[in-house]
Design brief:
Number of strands: 8
Oligomer: single chain
CATH class of the largest domain: Alpha Beta
Number of helices: 8
CATH superfamily of the largest domain: Type I PLP-dependent aspartate aminotransferase-like (Major domain)
Strand content: 5-15%
Strand order of the largest sheet: 1-2-3-4
Number of domains: 2
Bound molecules: pyridoxal-5'-phosphate
Order of helices and strands: HEHEHEEHHHEEHEEH
Largest sheet: 4 strands, mixed
Helix content: 40-55%
Distance between the termini: 36 Å
Shape: globular
Radius of gyration: 21 Å
CATH architecture of the largest domain: 3-Layer(aba) Sandwich
């Protein structure tokens, strides 16, 4: 954003009923289309920070909205950031929207981003994958070649290169027969933690301290805290209880359940609750 001078436009993520806010997304996309005639749409599911992945119907509605705006003449780059791909725990869609966006319309360029990152339970390897959908069948190879060259150029001009050790570890891991079983084992740990959070949050005692946003996937969930500022709460949690969380805006606190053992999750939310009470 800073480097390329992009202007970020946002919309409320959820409807009041707790679904993905497709109407708000569509309205904002139409505004940008009217203003600029072009847009880059960034879709990130499972989402950071909310931990939400849309249902199949919501996913279809997002794709339909993008298609409609493209048909009205807007050029759209639709990027799916699939950094948390595969970490689906409940009744969400379980595919990337990239598949539905690829080659959907000549004005839509679909780009898929994957990394040897959260979805592979590794961090800091700096190894990622960029996939471009090559437009409709008549797209000239020259266009896609130019895109590839420009991408290589911008990588070289910014980060220079991905480190070779990271690439080697990833390649060896992906080639190992033990890898699918190890990945399934880690997935079960994550799912166990996510479902435990849901179970704990059912406790009515928390109702005066927060509501929580829908979550069904990924590494995180967000509380919407009541009567205290999210940033003040974050600082207090860290100072008094040694608990680290991320504050977003005035009311939202992101909790990374991915890094807390299942048996410690209750204590974590009790500490957050105590911290809210200290401040309110
Ligand atoms: C949505 C999303 N995309 C991409 C990344 C980048 O992953 P990494 O830091 O491993 O490059 C992150 C990391 O937090 C993320 O949350």
């Amino acid at each position: 954003m800073t480097r390329c001078g992009a202007v970020i436009k946002k919309y409320p993520t959820f409807t009041v009923d707790g679904g993905f806010n497709v109407p708000a997304f569509k309205a904002e996309l139409k505004n940008v289309a009217a203003e600029k005639g072009k847009a880059v749409v960034l879709l990130n599911f499972p989402n950071n920070p909310s931990g939400y992945t849309p249902t199949v119907e919501e996913g279809d509605a997002i794709v339909a909205a993008i298609q409609e705006v493209a048909e009205d003449g807007c050029n759209i780059v639709a990027i799916t950031d699939d950094a948390y791909f595969g970490l689906f725990y409940e009744d969400s869609m379980t595919e990337s929207l990239y598949g539905k966006l690829a080659n959907l319309h000549p004005r839509i360029l679909a780009i898929k981003l994957d990394g040897a990152t959260k979805e592979e339970y590794v961090w800091g390897f700096r190894t990622g994958f960029i996939t471009f959908a090559d437009g409709n069948k008549t797209a000239k190879p020259k266009v896609i070649t130019a895109l590839e060259k420009k991408t290589m150029g911008i990588i070289r001009a910014t980060i220079s290169n991905c480190p070779h050790p990271g690439q080697t570890f990833v390649l060896d891991a992906l080639s190992s027969d033990q890898y699918p079983a190890q990945k399934a084992e880690k997935f079960a740990v994550m799912k166990g933690r996510a479902l435990k959070v849901k179970e704990i949050l059912k406790d009515a005692k928390y109702a005066d301290a927060w509501d929580y946003y829908p979550f069904n996937s990924g590494y995180f969930m967000c509380l919407k805290v009541k009567n205290v500022g999210a940033e003040a709460l974050r600082v207090h949690l860290l100072d008094k209880y040694g608990v680290g969380a991320i504050s977003i805006g005035k009311t939202d606190l992101r909790v990374a359940f991915s890094c807390i053992a299942e048996e410690d999750i209750k204590e974590l939310f009790d500490l957050i609750y105590d911290a809210v009470k200290d401040l309110s």
